[in-house]
Amino acid sequence: QGRMWAYTVGFTVLPHVGGFLGWFINRKEIPVWYEKLKKPSWCPSRNIFPFAWTVLYTGMGYASYLIWNDLGGCSSKAIVPLGLYGAQLALNWAWPPLFFGARNLRMALLDILCLDVLVIGTMCSWYRINKVATLLMAPYLGWLAMATCLTIRIWKDNPEEKPAKSE
Q: Among 2, 80, 84, 104, which residue's Cβ finds the most Cβ atoms within 10 Å?
């Protein structure tokens, strides 16, 4: 029983690790670069993001624990459902360094489009295993839909500067 508590906490905290590292590494780029980008009027306030991601990462982390537990741990049945989850988590963690760190809007857009597909795939693979876990991913998918639209708008409205030709 005590060991299950550790697994529950571990799975729930895991998404926060990459999210925190992404924020920590790129935090200086937000006021310097991000604030100067042209953004649509419906762009959420910067203050919303930490709260939103705390809720979303907690929900998805706990959902992954439910799937892992229902499938009996790291069994052969868990390879696809947890593999999809792990892949989408890696793309989630890759987005801030691409967007803020590298300032590569095109790669950030490709990343988030692939992320959307993987999250949908994850949810589809989880549906027959645990409907509660699938529902816990729904707010994340909704937020990603908004974030994808925001990334598209920022990419379109802020053309990347071409390096000057040397003569």
A: 84
pTM across the whole model: 0.87
The third-level CATH classification (topology) of the domain covering 3-28+46-157 is: Ferritin (1.20.1260)
pLDDT at 164: 57
φ, ψ of residue 21 to 5 degrees: the values are -60, -40
Angle at 15 between CA 9 and CA 20, to 5 degrees: 110
Q: What is the pLDDT of residue 162?
A: 58
Beta-carbon contacts of residue 151 (< 8 Å; ≥ 6 apart): 99, 105, 108, 109, 112
* Contact between 109 and 155 (Cβ < 8 Å): yes
Q: How far apart are CA 92 and CA 151, in angstroms?
A: 13
